[in-house]
Design brief:
Elements (H helix, E strand, L loop, with lengths): L1 H42 L5 E2 L9 H8 L29 E2 L18 H18 L7 H7 L25 E4 L5 H8 L4 E5 L4 H4 L1 E3 L1 E2 L9 E10 L5 E6 L11 E5 L16 E4 L1
Parallel strand pairs: 6-9
Antiparallel strand pairs: 1-5, 2-7, 3-10, 4-7, 7-8, 8-9
Helix pairs in contact: 3-4
Length: 281
C-alpha cells in the first residue's frame, strides 16, 4: 500500500512538474518574442515601447482568451447608412485632434475579466456625442448594455437581462457607419466626434504595448472594440491615431494607444478602418 501511494504521488508530481514546465516554456517563448520584437524595432528605427509586466502572467494564448476573441463580433454584412461627414473638406480638417482636450472623453475604464469591449467602445463614442450635443460629459454605464445583450453564448459577458423601469442618462437617435477601408473618411469622422472602431487586438503587439506610436506588424482579424478619439503627428513626422482602450490605466500610455495612421493597407493598422461607426444624437 505504501509503495502504491508513493507511486501515485510520484505520478501526480511528475504531471504537475511537466505542466509547470510547459507553462513556463510558453511564457518564456512569449518573452523571447518580446526581446526579438524589440531588436527588430531597433534595427528598423521603430519607436513604440513594449511592456512585459501588465500581462506578463499570461501566455499569448491565455491573453487572447481573456482580452480578445471574445466580446466583439465582426459584422457579417454592413447595411448601407448615411455618412454625414463625406462633404467635409480635408483642407478644413485640423492637423491634430484630441477629444480629451475638449472635455468629451471620460477617464479610462477597465473591462476586467468580462469580454465586453464592444460595450466600452460604444459607450466611449456615445459619451462623446452626448457631450457635443448637450455640453455635459456624463460617464455612462457599460453594464446597461451588457445586461441588455441576452443573445448568443455569453456575448454580453453574463447574459443578464435589461433592467426595466430605469431612467436613461442619455439617448442617441441612431448610428452611421464610416465607409469601410478608408482612413480618409475615418479622419473626417474623428475630426467631428469620437468614433467606435474594431481592431485585431489579440497578438503580442497589443499585449505588450507600453507607449509610442505602434508601427509593427498586426493582423486584421477583428476581435477587440476601442474608440478613436483623435489623431496627430509626432515630431519625426509619423502620423498616428489616438485610441482609448478599456484595459485600465496601467496598460499602454495610461490606458491610451497611438497607432500608425495612413498606412499602405487600406484596412488600416490592425484593421482599424474596416468597421468604424459612430452614434448620432
Amino acid at each position: 500500500m505504501a509503495i502504491l501511494k508513493a507511486l501515485i504521488l510520484g505520478i501526480v508530481g511528475c504531471v504537475c512538474f511537466c505542466s509547470s514546465v510547459l507553462a513556463a516554456r510558453e511564457l518564456s517563448d512569449d518573452l523571447s518574442m518580446v526581446a526579438r520584437h524589440e531588436s527588430w524595432m531597433v534595427q528598423y528605427g521603430r519607436v513604440y515601447k513594449d511592456d512585459a509586466e501588465k500581462f506578463a502572467d499570461l501566455t499569448n494564448k491565455e491573453f487572447k482568451a481573456r482580452k480578445a476573441n471574445k466580446g466583439y463580433k465582426p459584422s457579417m454584412e454592413r447595411m448601407p447608412t448615411r455618412f454625414r461627414y463625406e462633404n467635409v473638406s480635408f483642407d478644413a480638417l485640423p492637423a491634430t485632434v484630441d477629444w480629451r482636450t475638449k472635455g468629451a472623453i471620460t477617464p479610462i475604464k477597465d473591462q476586467g475579466q468580462c469580454g465586453c469591449c464592444w460595450a466600452f467602445s460604444a459607450v466611449a463614442a456615445t459619451e462623446g456625442v452626448v457631450k457635443l450635443k448637450t455640453g455635459k460629459l456624463i460617464s455612462l454605464s457599460e453594464q446597461e448594455l451588457v445586461d441588455c445583450d441576452v443573445h448568443g453564448e455569453d456575448q454580453g459577458c453574463e447574459d443578464d437581462k435589461c433592467k426595466s423601469g430605469t431612467n436613461g442618462a442619455a439617448t442617441i437617435k441612431s448610428y452611421e457607419d464610416v465607409p469601410a477601408n478608408n482612413e480618409g473618411a475615418l479622419m473626417q469622422a474623428v475630426a467631428s466626434q469620437p468614433v467606435s472602431v474594431a481592431v485585431d487586438g489579440g497578438d503580442m503587439t497589443f499585449q505588450f504595448y507600453k507607449g509610442g506610436v505602434m508601427t509593427g506588424s498586426c493582423g486584421t482579424d477583428l476581435d477587440h472594440g476601442i474608440a478613436a478619439i483623435g489623431y496627430g503627428k509626432t515630431s519625426d513626422g509619423t502620423k498616428y491615431w489616438l485610441l482609448k482602450n478599456s484595459w485600465g490605466t496601467t496598460w499602454g500610455e495610461n490606458g491610451y494607444l497611438r497607432m500608425e495612421k495612413d498606412i499602405p493597407d487600406k484596412k488600416g493598422m490592425c484593421g482599424l478602418a474596416m468597421e468604424p461607426s459612430y452614434p448620432t444624437a
